[in-house]
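Hello forum,

I keep getting stuck at the same step: I have a sequence, I want structure tokens, and every attempt I make locally crashes halfway through. Rather than fight my setup again tonight, could one of you with a working pipeline run this one for me? It's a single chain of 84 residues.
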Amino acid sequence: MKISELLDGYEHSPINEKIYNILDGFDIWTTNEEAKLLARLKEPVKLSQLSEQDQFKVQVMIRKSLITKIGMNDPSVVANEKIK
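Reply #2:
Ran it on my machine without issues. Output:
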């Protein structure tokens, strides 16, 4: 989802238009390892099935809002839809 979609519904003014233009190209930086992990997580995967190293990467990516954690006990993780 683009930032402009999040801000849709707010009054359009020259100042807001500048904000839209600045934030429209905003991307979240990922490492090559994170990109490979995202590709593997197109479908939900149990967090416990991942290696300890991958679990650490997943926790970082959850903070970046690249991955969604589903459930409390034995949670699953899946890549967010907006990921390229």
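The longest strand covers residues 67-70. If your local run keeps crashing, start a new thread with the error log.
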